[in-house]
Amino acid sequence: MSVRSGIAIMGILAVSGGVVAAGMSYAGHDQGSANAQVQRNVVNSVALACPELRSGSDTTTSVALTSVPGVDGQSDEGSFSIVGTPGAATLGDLASAGSTAAFPTGEAAMAVATALDGLAPGSFAARTSVDSKGEGRGLANVQCTGPITEAWLLGGATQPGQRGKLVLVNPTDSDAVAEVTVVGIDGAVETSGTDGVAVPANDRAEVKLDAVAPGMAALAVHVTTRFGLVSPFIVDDRMEDLTPRGIEIIPPSGRPARRSIITGLPSGPGTRELLLLSPSERANVQVTAITQDGLKEVAGGQSIPVRGERLRTVDLSKQLGDSAATIVITSDVPVLASANMQTREEASSLESRKQAVADAQAELDAAKKPAERRELEIKVDRAIEAARDDGSDIVWLRAGERLTSTGVAGGVLPNGDTVVTLIAIGGDSRASVSRLSGSEVTEVDAAVLPEGEPVEVSVSAEGKEPYSLLVSDIEGAGDVYATFVQRSGHSALTGYPLERVSPFIRLPDAQSQYGLAGSTRSH
């Protein structure tokens, strides 16, 4: 991309200003002079809920616990464990600070990661699912999140074959009751059974979105609690007849913002869609896509109207083609944004695998010896299994948050192609991309980030265990955002923005959101 493109995007961003925030925690983000002197305590207790992923005999799931190296207040004098339910069985423990490890979760419907004392600062957890041939075919990776009292979740659908559901996890020792509102392009949808959803302590509840709000091509969900805390997730599970079309888990979006950055929308054949929501009043939104070919103005550069409390969808498929993109959203009032890509494999590749079935069958038909036929029968079965996979999967990417010192993503599988996309907004910057495996940190690239130009860093795995990604040593005038996307097999993919790491929690945030201090992670 040219320098001129980078300068152009700065002009667009200057229209509305604002800052990006994602996730449900904000300790490093002082909003105005009134909060500049707020007291901050080192976090000493973290509870992170990890939602279930669709399971089956061919599905492998695990939770990775990560203690980000070099975080203030961190020590080995603490604990970091993952517990699965039902049965409250301990699935694994992380013994030392500055390390990562993955633990199989088996049939556990949900899991809760708890970090205490010296292992609480810099703690992070993510749950991963991979299935290359069964009903749950696809790749999914979702970060585990702390409980909240209110959240918006953007994404999912309930048209035929799209079995979306809302999962509410309660990782605390107190019962909770949640209210759920489903919003579509025409506003809130009349539903039954979503008013006062009981979520027992250390348990979960679910709302089948395809039952309470059927026929929706896109949706947003608003979760509030009457009392107690929950960690909400949307499971976007797609089928066409008996063919899986992918699965992904959608965590809560961040706070509405006048400027949002969605990095790393991947390249390749498939459809792409942007979701916009203004939780309150009407918004006028401008959308720009940054690709390797330069800037692409969505809607001809014209403002896109988004009515208050109504979802707006924007089809980016024709605009982007097969290009990777970073999406910049600016608005005159704060909005929420997320984007998805539904992969589609090239027709030539599909035909090639079908031909492989025919060739293997022809060999079997011509074989005479029993031993040879047995080997060819296995070959035919494998070819048929490969031909069943049409390479379809879905990934949802929410708006990311500005990284300060370190960003982290965890549970990245070693047998996939992984790309970290970084961008600096507001000036040139630099950042280091590293891989954390066990307690060993290996730098992959010290990336130079010219203003407004997406930079992709390919990360290869060493060894057979899942690893964590770190973006650190951030310096320069620009705000840095980063997202990882991983592909596996033909077109299975997953990813999410790297989360900012901080050892501190601001007391007003803890008291207003949770009614306590120093008991949950905040960044």
List keywords for this structure.
523 residues, mainly beta, eight-stranded antiparallel β-sheet, five-stranded antiparallel β-sheet, 6 helices, 36 strands, 47% strand, globular, disordered C terminus
Per DSSP E runs of 2 or more residues, the count of β-strands stands at: 36
Q: Give me the secondary-structure category.
A: mainly beta
Instruction: Give the low-pLDDT segments.
Output: 1-38, 505-523
Query: How many structural units, i.e. domains?
Result: 2
Individual helix count: 6
Report the radius of gyration as a whole number of Å.
23 Å
- Please indicate the percent range of residues in DSSP E strands (runs of 2 or more): over 45%
Name the helicity range. Answer: 10-25%
Major sheet description: 8 strands, antiparallel
Distance between the termini: 32 Å
Question: Please, what is the average pLDDT?
Answer: 81
Q: Based on CA inertia axes, which overall geometry fits?
A: globular
